[in-house]
Amino acid sequence: MRWFYRSLPIRCGALALVAGLSITACGGDRPQSNRPSAAEGAPEAIASDCRTVSHFSGETEVCESPEKIVVLDAHSLDLLLSLGRQPAGIVTPLPITTDRVEQPSVAVPYLGNFVTTKPVYLGTAGRAPSLEVLTLLRPDLILGESWSVRSASEVLLPKVAPTVPLGPRTEKNQWRRNLRAMAQALGDENLADQAIARYEQQLAKAKKDLAEVVSQRPKVLLLTGESLTKGAIFILTGEGFIGQMLQAIGFEVVTPPGVTQNFIPSSVEVLPSLNEADMVFVLGYSAEASEAVEAEDIIDEKALVERQNFLIGQQLARIKADWGENAIAQSLTASKTDQVYFRTFYEWNVFNGPLGAELILTQLRESLLEE
Fold it and tell me: Could you say which DSSP state residue 283 is in?
């Protein structure tokens, strides 16, 4: 279940937590066009109902209003649903054996609650989707973050349908650019304006609700990792999706001085230098639990629910136990005042869109207002 950890933002040259974690290749993608060549049967002139969509990797020609839309990752699904459209094909965190996702709310934790269709099952997140199934589905549009498009084959996908690769979701304001590119591909750019307006309204409401908390405990430290002793932990800054949200509410995101990137590989020994934080949010994940779930496909709904509950719980188990046993972590002011909160990486840093923001704000209220 690689959505829980696969897409951590790893800087070029930084140590990866596990193979394949990076969402962008070192040096970035070269812009390229998804326009079909004349040899592939493209018309000599662009039809009047077609438009050129500019995106992270270049340009793509999309015609008419796409009906069958495929998404290759959670971020793309969040944005599509935020624009009021439903997927015809998706990948899921949990491996299943049916041709269609009969219970999206179970197969895709959280986001599946917003899926009203029974989309075609294209494969499991972190693996390349089935090109055979994609071809048989005959979609009108394929959407995915650049890493998911590459893993599926950025050369072959445009031969199946117009493909729009989206930029790394955790980069500053990239989700807004991705949302606008997607809305343009759908043929209605006003959809993006409406989704962003709803997002801003959510932030304004949260700012009002949490005003007293902000005044009393303004400084927040954001961490993510599998454990405090196994591999690296990462500091998330105000330059990323979560940090920007917290800053918009009024919080100050604590980071080492001089940092401009949206994350920093770090270690538990660095934490005392960040002890100014009034609160700490720790986003846990578990590679071992994910690999265990991926070992076999899941057939029935009961088994899916059991695996989902197991996996959600295991994301936090290791790092939460480490935090309670580690002398450095326990020496922090936030630990002494019981202001350390544990959430999953999956829930907070995989969606990175308006629906994901709604979940974060809900859990913020649960943590900070219902104590």
Answer: E
Tokens 């995101």 -> residue: 253
The C-alpha atoms of residue 95 and residue 107 are separated, in whole angstroms, by 8
- Residue 135 CA to residue 91 CA, distance in Å, equals 15
Pick the CATH number of 2-197 from 3.40.50.1980, 2.40.110.20, 3.40.50.300, 3.30.930.10: 3.40.50.1980
pLDDT tens-digit map of 229-239 = 877 899 999 99
Predicted TM-score of the model (pTM): 0.84
Q: Is residue 126 left, alpha or beta, with left meaning phi > 0 and alpha meaning psi from -120 to 50?
A: left
Tens digits of per-residue pLDDT, 303-338?
Answer: 666 666 666 777 888 999 999 999 999 999 999 999
Q: Which residues lie closer than 8 Å to 85 by C-beta, 6 or more apart? A: 69, 186
Q: What is the CATH number of domain 203-369?
A: 3.40.50.1980
Q: What are the C-alpha distances in Å from 244 to residues 56, 237, 265?
A: 21, 8, 19
Nearest CA to 144 out of 262, 35, 55 is that of 55
pLDDT at residue number 195? 98
Sign of CA dihedral 9, 13, 16, 19: positive
Angle between helices 354-369 and 74-82 (to 10 degrees): 100
SS (HEC) of the chain: CHHHCCCCCCCCCCCCCCCCCCCCCCCCCCCEECCCCHHHCCCCCCCCCEEEEEECCEEEEEECCCCCEEECCHHHHHHHHHCCCCCCEEEECCCECCCECCCHHHHCCCHHHHCCCCCEEEEECCCCCCHHHHHHHCCCEEEEEHHHHHHHCCCCHHHHCCEEEECCCCCCCHHHHHHHHHHHHHCCCHHHHHHHHHHHHHHHHHHHHCHHHHHHCCEEEEEEECCCCCCCEEEECCCCHHHHHHHHHCCEECCCCCCCCCEEEECHHHHHHHCCCCEEEEEECCHHHHHHHHCCCECCHHHHHHHHHHHHHHHHHHHHHHHHHCHHHHHCHHHHCCCEEEEEHHHHHCCCCHHHHHHHHHHHHHHHHCC
